[in-house]
Prior knowledge:
This protein has a single domain, classed as Ubiquitin-like (UB roll) (Roll), CATH 3.10.20. By secondary structure, the chain is of the alpha+beta class. It has helices spanning 7-10, 39-46, 48-51, 91-104, and strands at residues 13-21, 26-34, 62-64, 67-69, 80-83. It is elongated. The chain is built from 4 helices and 5 strands; from the N terminus they run H-E-E-H-H-E-E-E-H.
Amino acid sequence: MSGRWNYRENAEKIEVEVSYARSDVQVIIPVRVEVNATVEEVIRLSGVLEQFSDIDLAVNKVGVFGKLSKLSAQLQTGDRVEIYRPLIADPKESRRQRAAEAKDTPKAES
Length: 110
């Protein structure tokens, strides 16, 4: 190779993580990417999509440190990209059901 400076090889890199969890397994994958990498690029580069066929970026929501994010959002060094599973039950409906059950259950006398 000639002595030419290759921008892509010498571009500044940042360290980020990709996180995904199911009830049976959790992974955190460190990824070194170029500055200005997007959430989607980092997810694809991490290899998590090949590891878990149940991830569909058109369906699964994503976030950075627990805050929902777009796939096009740019990342900063140290960010943790999280891929969320679809909810099985609506949390609001679950709370309503528990409250209704508690209301119907007689309380023990003290």
